[in-house]
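Can you make up a polypeptide sequence alongside its tokenized fold?
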Amino acid sequence: MKMKKLTMLVSAVALSATLSANALAKDTIALVVSTLNNPFFVSMKDGAQQEANKLGYKLVVLDSQNNPAKELANVQDLMVQNPKMLLINPTDSDAVGNAIKMANQAKIPVITLDRVATKGEVVSHIASDNRVGGKMAGDFIADKVGADAKVIQLEGIAGTSAARERGEGFKQSQEQHKFKLLGSQPADFDRTKGLNVMQNLLTAHPDVQAVFAQNDEMALGALRALQTAGKSDVIVVGFDGTADGVKAVEGGKLAATVAQRPDQIGVIGVETADKVLKGEKVATTIPVDLKLVTK
């Protein structure tokens, strides 16, 4: 009788241990981010982490440092860990194809965030409508400065869908309102490069009336260049709605920013991954709302 009780006790302890182990063994979702040296993508990562915690997933985050080779190496490293899903924010829409194909071969479903991939199989793409946002910025400039406005554009990283689409939307507005584009150069979504490129463009085009920067980091760099040059009457419009960008709008420094919800891109990314893993159907493209923030 004692032996039977002991056996039952051991079985109960073993079952409890198994249940505890199963509770701790969370499925892994991988998130590969183009760069964590940009507050926009930090916010996106934080949103994804928050939702992963809520839904009970382990989130592994890797930083590609804006380098396609580093991005590919990150995905290669992840293949050893065999995550259930791969969320990737591409460094370059074309170059990311090899990394996505690697995940495809390993039968790991892929979701792209903020920037599209031109190659490889992706179950869903989650992003703001960058074309709408670019046109929104151009329309605001036309409204504030007039149809004959003299404008400079600071572009993002060449090869990214975000830079291309924001530029296309801005061009639609330019053609509609007939404002004059004095110059348009890449500053790689970077604040310091935004400052340097804007200084050079200012030398060539001192009569500029407005600047559209394809993200807030470049807008803040351009703003610094204009302040240094004593040009307080030039309006600057950014894109993303980062904390620094919105603060600059509220302080009357930036005229406006086209606000994305990077945290929501991360949240919806993990939500969508959860649905895919449960066998539910998901949309191939999931839009995230934009809003023009002005003072």
Remarks:
- Confidence is low (pLDDT under 50) at residues 5-24.
- The CA atoms of residues 239 and 258 lie 4 Å apart.
- The two ends are 80 Å apart (CA to CA).
- Residues 130-259 form a domain with the Rossmann fold fold (CATH 3.40.50.2300).
